[in-house]
Design goal:
Elements (H helix, E strand, L loop, with lengths): L4 E4 L5 E8 L3 E5 L4 E8 L3 E5 L2 E9 L3 E5 L2 E9 L4 E5 L4 E8 L3 E5 L4 E8 L3 E5 L3 E8 L2 E6 L4 E8 L1 E5 L4 E2 L2 E4 L2
Parallel strand pairs: 1-3, 2-4, 3-5, 4-6, 5-7, 6-8, 7-9, 8-10, 9-11, 10-12, 11-13, 12-14, 13-15, 14-16, 15-17, 16-18, 16-19
Length: about 180
């Protein structure tokens, strides 16, 4: 469609195959789960689930805001000219690939964060209540990982500045800093 798509499930789930909108895509299942296979928004994308939020591929021309209640699982998230913001209210956050035009902002205050590849034009900021595990992180400016109750493990990274903090162990892997 050339316009926007909005789906609200008041007490149930949203299951979506392929969704394509020239402007915005909004899915809200405040008391249920969202399972979206392939979603493309020409402008902004907003998903909010009270339970599990599961995404195959999601792409936005602008801002991408994703909120999971009890967990978040995604294969590929891309925002061409905006931020990718992911929050899990309770539970774990797991993403294979994130590519943010500006910032990748990932938050699991009571769970773990697992990322295979995360890229951001400006900043990567991941905050978890438990462990953070990143395969590769590439940020144009800052690469920030903060765990309030666990460990941090990174395979490799590249950024101008990095800041890793955790009460447990930090395995920083191979980092290129100040490039």
């Amino acid at each position: 469609t050339k316009g926007s798509i909005t789906s609200d499930a008041l007490n149930g789930d949203i299951n979506s195959g392929t969704t394509l909108a020239g402007m915005d895509v909004t899915f809200r299942a405040l008391n249920g789960s969202i399972d979206a296979l392939d979603t493309t928004a020409g402008r902004d994308l907003y998903f909010e689930a009270g339970k599990l939020l599961k995404i195959g591929k999601a792409s936005a021309g602008g801002e991408m805001t994703l909120i999971g209640g009890t967990g978040f699982i995604a294969d590929t998230l891309r925002s061409k000219k905006g931020n990718v913001k992911v929050t899990v209210r309770q539970g774990d956050l797991s993403i294979r690939e994130v590519d943010a035009g500006i910032d990748a902002l990932l938050n699991a205050p009571f769970g773990n964060i697992s990322l295979q590849l995360v890229k951001a034009g400006r900043d990567i900021v991941a905050k978890a209540g438990k462990n953070i595990d990143v395969g590769t992180g590439v940020a144009g400016r800052n690469f920030v990982l903060a765990s309030t109750g666990g460990n941090i493990k990174v395979g490799q990274g590249e950024s101008r500045k990095l800041d890793f903090s955790a009460p447990g162990e930090i395995d920083a892997g191979t980092q290129k800093v100040g490039q």
